Known about the structure:
heterodimer; A: mainly alpha; two-stranded antiparallel ribbon; 72% helix; B: alpha/beta; D-Maltodextrin-Binding Protein, domain 2; nine-stranded mixed β-sheet; 11 helices; 44% helix; 19% strand; globular
Amino acid sequence: MLEGLIGGFANCFEPFNLLLLFLGTFLGLLVGALPGLSSPMAIIILLPVTYSLDPLPALLTMIGVYVGTKLGGSFSAILLRTPGTPAGACTALDGFPMAEKGQSALALGYATYSSFFGGATSWIIAVTCIPFISSIALKSSNADIALIAIMGLVMVSAFTRGSMLKGFIGVSIGLLIGAVGMDRTDAIERFTFGSIDLLSGVPFAAALVGLFGFAVVISDLSLMKSSSQLVATKFKIELPSTLDFLKRWRAWSVGGFFGAIIGAVPGVGADGATWLSYGVVKNNSKNPDNFGKGEPDGVVAPETANNGTTGGTMVPMLTLGIPGDASTAIMIGALYLHGLQPGVTLMKTGAEVVYGMLAGLLLAGVFMFVIALGAIRFFVYVLRQHRSILFPFVMIFATMGAYASYNEFFPVYVAIFLGVFGFFMEERGFPVVTIVLGVILGPIIEYNTRAALQLADANWFTFVDTWPRLIMIGIIVFLVFNEIRQGLIRQKISKQ
Amino acid sequence: MRILILGIFCFFTFLGNLALAAYPEKPIRIIVPYKAGGGTDSIARGFVGAFSKAAGVDVVITNVNGGAGSKGIIQVMKAKPDGYNLILTGSTDIIGLSTFRKMPFKSIGSLTPVGGIYTTPTYVLAHKDRGYKTLEEVIEKSKANPGKLIAGIGGKFGAHDVLANAVNGYKNAGFRIVAFDGGAMLKKATIANEVDICIIHSPVLLNEVKAGLLNVIGTGGSLAKITYPPIQKTKTLRDMGIPADVGVTRGVWAPKGTPKDVIAKLEKFIEVATNSEEFKKFGNNFGFAPKYYTSSQFLDLLNLEQGVYTDIKGKFMSK
């Protein structure tokens, strides 16, 4: 194992391989930072370019893009509240308010440190515990995935303090939007009104781009003439110190752990890990009310988890041929195209490439850190442009992102509609994040709950028949009761 | 006047022929009706390199996912029939949708089949820990415990579902059919030993079969073209008294109305690409042997498949 890894690093340090890894990471950061564009899109565009390369350099380029886009996506989430991924949406919760307070550089700095740290932590866990991570991927059944997603949804209560009712309505709307389309178990059409476009549901990228990106632009249109900056009136470049970052050890250790472990669960990993770590850190914070208003820990936790999932998703892909997300699914296709056979035999038949990819994963994190820290000034400069210049670009890229998700205009119309809808909802005090969370987690919960019940012959005890499930149920019950208790206490105080 | 009209007609016919003679003169777009990274997408990407060389122009893959694959099909259906808009997918993806759902396209007739690039049967796998060697053995066990044994399939209303219902229907097997959300989730559940049998297109999971983790216990058709000799003589459904051939043929379709000359050229490109060393190498690595089917052979295969789907639907899936 160690010998293989050393060989992997040696291969990565070949100048050409190193160059491609660097370029891939750079490209990933750039693509990720463009609102609405994502890692799978970038990798698929690169795929034909890598045909002529040997397998390792080709895959190293993709790994660079994969790692780079994770952080790049958070940049657009922090600066413009236009995330390209659900994970980025979580970072926007506190990243964007920080930017609004003129701390955009600080928020980007925390995100950069967190991504690097999360990636490195997850890499160490993944590489030293390959059999353990593989077994998590393999043994996480539909019941486990459903419970993880339900835990994430319960964490929604963390964002809805002030008005439980509005939060509940927001989540319900999200779940309703998530229910549109052909259901994934019985292929029954729901709320499609005969439209072919709606058969596969409301396009997910369009929901993100619309509810976050377009809604922000619409809400800020009234400020178009009054300010030359998008979000900040006062401005200075201020980066976090390493010591300051290390002091936030609770946030990054929770994020790193969730990233590596939950990241390995196929189908929910990357999305679930960020929201869960955010919720856990918030609920254990001394100042939970600061979350959502620009709390640095609210950036550190999801960002550490976000890049932390890279190790968690990569190991099952290499050892079992099971993709954890869309990007690793494309990489599996790339392995075939390069003459390798992904699956349980890959560690034997393609050991050189496997170890090279694992080594590349860590090195890409280093490149990402160096490039991103250097690029923060540039991003902040872009942010400082006048709204009349910035907004059209945000709209163009967000539209491109929505279009590219299906390669047609339908998602663009959906994004515009949801943008207007999101704007009015926010105007009336409904947190749109609750809608987004419902859209993201609703279908995951529904499909996996139904599949779990089908597998267990409709026996609901399947949700408590292993220790991890019992623990998860315990956490869910505790969180629900805790939320009710706190609600009652707040009610009592307000009456007094 | 007549001479003038005739002259104009001849001129435009000449121009038209010139245009056809020049085909292809710009990049060809191939739609894959699923998202990037899936099985169909991987195979399409393995194919386009050779296809592009044969055609002498760039060939671009566009993933138009959504509507269980229907969006991509409809987009090609509505595209200009000039040979520059094609679709590469599996026969079951078109036939399954139009047989079981109300769709604005038919299994046969809405698109022009240009050529097939390989056909593989749908096969039945079981985890080695289950100890099953043949499908008949599992059927007997399931008959004794109706509704207890799980047959995992990759999704509703496709070849997997048809095969599962054929086994249940003809043998009164009583499998509980559980539809997973795509092949990747089914693969995971199979490797994790969560299902009694897994019904999936060959050669998916072949590496796991080679590694001894899974056993091939039955098949919807001959596995002779699968590049792993130990499973090539696996019993087919027909050998077991189930009169159904279930599989998938991957191929290329063009919009209806595409000129015959263009179709003829496309056929040639597909033939060259399918028989190329490049695609053969890819297929061998993937686990299948590429085989070219002319447009008429491809159409025959589609008709056969449609017949099986209609038959099984009518007998066992109409409720």
